């Protein structure tokens, strides 16, 4: 009886220790082979979208490019805020300091402006003696040139919108989704009136926020990836079976290829799928290979959308607005991470940007277009930073001379209200000599591209 009671107490003690070992006052027993009943279970490492995003192979050149483009977008926001003011051609730095949170700067506005003398002209107000700022003539000329090119390319913009409508599930798109990627598609600011309202034989506005395709064009039924396949078939003498459903895949430097990855990639390349312009039918996920075919069609649609953009990149959050219209019931971020040889997600800045990897080489677009060339000139002007040039030195000498003339005018019998016209004319004369074509190339930032 005593032995049975002892064995019962021992089993009860082991059960309590296994359930909650902290409730007992017994000393902590180290892990070993004879006390397996109290061993702890090790948790598996988390495999979430965030961990996969952090563990991806980094492309330093594309990351650097998105960092520079974020700075350019910040300057364009400042230019827009300055242009909306109607009180004069310049703004005081004290007022501009209130825009720090609006444009998303992590540094002071004064420090940011002084770091880019080729973009901002900073001078001392002759009356109030405070620092004022205005956009330089070179940068303003490049912005005007971009607006002119966008206006001249209205027909190309209409073709891009028509292609997007042909890819949609029912020939309709939300205008809000187009508005979010307006700059990426090269559309004018008033594209609803200048493009959608002008080409009525192609588009019809169902209501205020939905545009519908009137008639399809068979000439637009060939995707960019299909043109690449034809080129590969002709130039590299590959078999039609290998190139019929393939995609251009370029892995970044340092990408780790695991065991069995090449075989899976080869099978995925040969997997048939519905092409973006072929039809609006949705592949059944439960069918044989349905899930892979469905995801491959979504990859093809995102690939074609990125190919239609000016710089071959779009923010992931804005890309998700096309999911419903394109019939892509997938997690866009997960899909992009599954295909690192086709897409690259850059996390630089406050947003995530997806870039079409095949379109870039050493941080530069392989096949540039006129709008991209102008934006690249803007970026080169921003990347000059505080580097002084002969043109900038000449401008500073002229400004100093104009300031001395204004002081002499104030020393005489000039009224207080007459200073506005001469100082504005002096700065206009300075910036009239700025030629956007004379911008010094700062392409050494992109490895000599």
UniProtKB/TrEMBL annotation:
Source taxon at top rank: Eukaryota
One function term, GO molecular function aspect: RNA binding
PORR domain sequence ranges: 59-386
InterPro entries in UniProt: PORR_domain, PORR_fam
Protein name: Protein ROOT PRIMORDIUM DEFECTIVE 1
Organism annotation: Populus euphratica
């Amino acid at each position: 009886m005593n032995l049975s009671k002892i064995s019962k107490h021992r089993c009860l003690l082991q059960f309590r220790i296994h359930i909650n070992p902290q409730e007992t006052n017994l000393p902590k027993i180290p892990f070993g082979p004879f006390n397996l009943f109290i061993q702890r279970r090790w948790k598996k490492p988390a495999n979430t979208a965030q961990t996969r995003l952090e563990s991806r192979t980094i492309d330093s050149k594309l990351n650097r490019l998105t960092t520079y483009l974020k700075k350019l977008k910040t300057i364009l926001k400042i230019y827009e805020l300055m242009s909306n003011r109607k009180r004069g051609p310049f703004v005081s730095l004290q007022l501009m300091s209130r825009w720090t949170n609006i444009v998303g700067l992590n540094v002071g506005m004064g420090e940011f402006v002084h770091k880019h003398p080729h973009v901002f002209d900073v001078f001392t107000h002759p009356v109030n003696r405070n620092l004022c700022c205005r956009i330089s003539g070179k940068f303003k000329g490049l912005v005007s040139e971009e607006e002119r090119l966008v206006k001249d390319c209205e027909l190309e913009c209409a073709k891009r919108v028509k292609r997007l409508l042909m890819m949609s599930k029912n020939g309709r798109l939300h205008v809000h989704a187009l508005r979010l990627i307006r700059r990426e598609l090269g559309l004018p600011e008033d594209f609803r009136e200048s493009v959608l309202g002008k080409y009525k034989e192609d588009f019809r506005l169902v209501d205020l926020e939905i545009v519908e395709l009137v008639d399809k064009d068979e000439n637009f039924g060939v995707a960019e990836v299909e043109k690449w396949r034809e080129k590969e078939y002709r130039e590299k003498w590959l078999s039609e079976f290998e190139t019929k459903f393939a995609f251009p895949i370029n892995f970044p430097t340092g990408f780790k290829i695991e065991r069995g990855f090449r075989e899976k990639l080869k099978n995925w390349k040969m997997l048939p799928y519905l092409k973006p312009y072929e039809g609006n039918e949705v592949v059944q996920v439960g069918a044989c290979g349905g899930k892979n075919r469905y995801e491959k069609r979504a990859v093809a649609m995102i690939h074609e959308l990125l190919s239609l953009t000016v710089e071959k990149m779009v923010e992931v959050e804005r890309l998700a607005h096309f999911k419903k219209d394109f019939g892509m019931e997938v997690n866009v971020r997960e899909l992009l991470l599954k295909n690192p040889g086709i897409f690259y997600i850059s996390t630089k800045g406050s947003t995530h940007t997806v870039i079409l990897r095949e379109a870039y080489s050493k941080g530069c677009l392989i096949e540039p277009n006129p709008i991209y060339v102008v934006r690249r000139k803007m970026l080169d002007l921003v990347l000059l930073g505080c580097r002084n040039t002969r043109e900038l030195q000449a401008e500073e000498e002229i400004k100093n001379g104009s300031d001395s003339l204004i002081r002499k005018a104030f020393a005489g019998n000039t009224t207080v209200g007459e200073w506005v016209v001469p100082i504005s004319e002096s700065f206009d004369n300075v910036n009239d000599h700025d030629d956007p074509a004379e911008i010094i190339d700062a392409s050494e930032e992109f490895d000599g591209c």
